[in-house]
Structure formats: C-alpha cells, structure tokens
Write a structure and sequence with these properties.
mainly alpha; 10 helices; 9% strand
C-alpha cells in the first residue's frame, strides 16, 4: 500500500498528488470516451485505437464551449469536420456488418445499430404518411448529439461525485465497503452485479439532487415519493435515451476510482462548489481535492 507523507518531501508530495489528479482526469475522460465509442458506434478495440483521437478531440470541446456553439470557430469546425468525415466512412461499414449478421429489429448492440435500422414517420410529396429510413446526415446528426451530450454529462457527473466523496468521508467509506463486498476482484464486475449497488444508487441520486449531507434515496424513501418528484434523466418519451448507459458507465468508473484512491478536501476545494453551463451543468473551475492511493 502506498502512502504519501508531507514530512518526507513536501515537493514530492505535491508533485505526486498533481500527477495522480492528472491521471484521474485523464482516466475519466478516456474511460467515458471509450465507452461512447463502444456503445454508440459499436467500435471494437482495434477501431477505437485507430479512431479514438478524432472522437476524443471532438468530445473535449464540449466542457469548454459556451452555450451557443460557434461553428465559425476554426478549432470546433475542424474537429467537427474530422468526425463527420470519419462517420461517413464508418457508417456504410457498420450497416453492412449489421446486414451480414442478420440482426433482428430488437437486437441492437449500439445506438448506431438502432439508428440505422429505424424507420421514422414522414410525409410523402402528396402529403400521405409514410415510414422511411434515416438519411445519412440525420444519422450522423443524432450520433454527434449523443456523443457530445454523453461525454459532457458523464464527465461532469463523475467530477461531482468525486467532490462529494471528498466532502463526505463517511459516505466514501460506505461506498468503498459496498464496492469491495460486491466486487472482491475486478473480474467480478458484471452487468448483473452492478444492479445490486444500492448504496451507489443512493449516493448518485443524492449527488444529482445537489450537494448532499447524507444519502436520502433509500428504497423506502423512493417508495414514499411521487415518481416524478425527482427526474435526473427526465421521464416518458422525452426521457434521456442514454440513462442506462450513463449509469452503468459511471458505476464502473467509480468502482475503479474508489478501489484505488481516497479523496479529501484541500485548501483549494471550493465550498460551495461553483457551477457553470458549458453547455451542460459542470464544475466552473474544475474539482480540487486531495487524492491518495489506498
């Protein structure tokens, strides 16, 4: 077990913590980016290695953008054009693979497979209703929107959770106990086991509710509330289509972080935390906490 002590070498301690913080931020970004590539675009490991830079460069624009995206901005336009060009090449290949696999309508391994097999209601020239396939530009527009929204919201959510763990050490310890109890080894993390993370679900909901003191989203609390009194992902036909993806990805990311590190407040930790819309809600100046290996 590693430990960092201020008495031995203050400069080394600060440097080590800085390196760990940079690693964690990169881990969050890269983890979410790879998840998006796999689940949205159904890319395998080799395709991710080849195309990750283009996808990630596009994603990284979003946390720093103003609410109004300026397509005239050269940096944004270049990243946007590169990803659109990649999708124009990638889409036909994905559709051919989908057809060759003879996928049924209900078999969708990614958002892309769902979009390419969807038929939307439209009007013909004579005004009659008809169903048609999505055009290439429409599919690309949906994919771009999904990539940006997932990356922005999930990276911000993980930052908020790290902040709350630092401010609530008792919650951090409870979450650590749940993680090590359900997943003694990393290979024990499965889709089935993720659904048993009851404490995480409470902590996540409380974080979304905004800066909690202690979790208040137990089974009993949820049963006693109206189902529409708390809607972090919306509800009904306008609800977030990426809810399950987001929850699963954030659970896996937090399992990795909580197993390896402890978080605590520092003299740079903002209390209360300043927030901004860029274009989704996120920490205005990032999250500053102490990070120590377990």
């Amino acid at each position: 077990m590693m430990s960092l002590t201020l008495e031995i070498n203050p400069y080394l301690l600060v440097t080590s913590i800085t390196i760990i913080l940079v690693f964690i931020y990169r881990f969050i970004d890269n983890f979410v980016s790879e998840s998006v590539a796999r689940i949205v675009l159904d890319m395998d490991a080799d395709e991710i290695d080849r195309h990750a830079a283009i996808v990630h460069r596009y994603e990284r624009l979003f946390p720093s953008l103003t609410p109004l995206l300026k397509l005239g901005d050269k940096k944004f336009k270049s990243s946007h054009d590169d990803l659109v060009a990649l999708l124009r090449v990638y889409l036909p290949k994905a559709i051919n693979a989908q057809n060759n696999n003879k996928m049924k309508d209900e078999d969708h391994s990614s958002l892309l497979s769902y979009l390419t097999s969807s038929r939307v209601l439209s009007r013909d020239i004579d005004g009659s209703l008809m169903r048609r396939d999505l055009e290439t530009d429409e599919t690309i527009a949906h994919v771009l929107s999904f990539i940006g929204e997932i990356f922005t919201s999930m990276t911000a959510s993980i930052q908020f959770m790290v902040y709350e763990l630092a401010r609530n050490p008792e919650c951090q310890e409870e979450l650590y106990k749940e993680v090590t109890s359900l997943f003694p080894n990393e290979e024990d993390v499965t889709m089935e086991n993720l659904q048993y993370m009851e404490y995480f679900d409470m902590f996540f909901s409380e974080t979304y509710r905004k800066h909690p003191i202690a979790p208040g989203f137990s089974k009993e609390d949820r049963m006693s509330r109206h189902q529409y009194s708390f809607l972090p992902f919306g509800q009904g036909p306008r609800g977030c289509p990426g809810q399950r993806l987001a929850t699963m990805t954030m659970k896996i990311a937090m399992i990795y972080l909580v197993r390896r590190y402890t978080f605590s407040t520092s003299n740079k930790t903002q209390i209360p935390l300043k927030e901004a819309l860029r274009p989704s809600l996120c920490p205005a100046d990032g999250v500053h906490v102490n990070v120590n290996p377990r």
